[in-house]
Amino acid sequence: MKLKVITNDSDVSKTEEFPCISCHTNCCKEYVIFVNAHDIYRLSVGLGLAPESFLEIYGAKDYDLGIKVEEGLVDLALKQKDSRCMFLEESKDIFRCTVNDFKPSVCKSYPFQMKNGKLIQMSDKMCPVEWNTKEFEAMMSTHLKKDEDEWKFYDELVLEWNAKHYTKKPLSTFLKFMLDRVVLEFVKS
Ligand code: SF4
Ligand code: SF4
After folding, report:
1. Ligand whose nearest atom lies closest to the CA of 29
2. What pLDDT does 102 receive?
3. Is 67 within a domain?
4. Angstrom distances, CA of residue 130 to CA of 25, 110, 135, 136, 139
5. Which of 3, 50, 147, 160 gets the highest tally of CB atoms within 10 A of its CB?
6. For a substitution probing ligand 2, which of 31, 43, 90, 103 has the most ligand atoms within 8 Å of its CB?
7. Which of these, 181, 179, 118, 182, lies nearest to 144 by C-alpha position?
8. What is the pLDDT of residue 12?
9. pLDDT tens-place string over residues 59-115
10. What range does the domain containing 121 cover?
11. Does residue 3 form part of some domain?
12. Mean pLDDT of all residues in the chain?
């Protein structure tokens, strides 16, 4: 895959290759990847794995958006191995995502985010490349809209669970409730 980028990195500008290929995947090593219902569904079905095998629970800070379960008020993220995403694999100093077809939507969007309805590159300097925002937006506009809708779906699902099921049920019950609703969503569409 080729993509034009604006960068000061002479190696990247010379080859014009997709920059993530030559990057040491700082993003996959540094971030905890929080996931939504559709991300979990795609990974679970695509890999044939139970969600519990790749999910880590984190204590939630946001009272409204954390999931209320027996384990506490929690958020869901991908498990880590050796302090980086469990799906990142290294071979001869090259790092690659082993779940490219099912990777979470936040991974596809990075290093961009919507701010006040406008797509901007995050300013956290984790990513060494100065991307061409217009080109990224054109390439990813369908994904970005879908991403926004999926997070909205997830937030509403968590609010509904918290309102109806605040009876100290275990996380496994929430996961079943959540995945059943994603399937229902697919049947409807
Ligand atoms: S998005 Fe940026 S930090 Fe992440 S792998 Fe690509 S070039 Fe590296
Ligand atoms: S799922 Fe793939 S792209 Fe996302 S953090 Fe893990 S290794 Fe990186």
Report:
1. 2
2. 94
3. yes
4. 15, 12, 12, 11, 16
5. 147
6. 103
7. 118
8. 38
9. 998 766 899 999 999 999 999 999 999 999 988 878 889 999 999 999 998 888 877
10. 10-188
11. no
12. 85
